[in-house]
Amino acid sequence: MAATREVFRQLMRELKLIYKTDNLHNVPAYAYVESQFRRFQVTGEKECRGKEEAKHMAQTYLCLLKSVRLQEELNAQYKGKGERSIESSARMVGLALPQKPADLDNTPPPR
């Protein structure tokens, strides 16, 4: 019972992160998850399901929500910004390019 309650709390935590709200009572996903947890409080012969099936489904859904959130965070962090200059690419990997000599900038190109 305590493990099931912990899964429910973790699901609510993920839903808060997804919907960015503290009041989940207005969110349809909250109402659905809550109704499913209440429905499967009494499991076994009544529903002809294994005793742990509802808990397993909740853990699977929790894993999906966490994975999707983490994947979106990684995409946002490492999203490409198009073409990069040589200097910015070198800085990204912790390198620095040597300084250009000042006299090369002012000389005209050879003919």
Radius of gyration: 27 Å
Structural class: mainly alpha
Low-pLDDT residue intervals, each spanning 5 or more residues = none
Encode the helix/strand succession as letters: HHHHH
**Average pLDDT:** 81
Query: What portion of residues belong to β-strands?
Result: under 5%
Helical content (DSSP H or I, runs of 4+): 55-70%
Shape: rod-shaped
Terminal Cα separation, in Å? 85 Å
* Strand segment count: 0
The helix tally amounts to 5
Question: What does this molecule look like?
Answer:
The chain has 111 residues and is an all-alpha fold. Helix content is 61%, strand content 0%. It is built from 5 helices and no strands. α1 runs antiparallel to α2 (28-39). The chain starts with a helix and ends in a 5-residue tail after the last helix.
Task: Summarize this structure as a short list of keywords or feature phrases.
111 residues, mainly alpha
In short:
It contains 5 helices and no strands. The protein is mainly α.
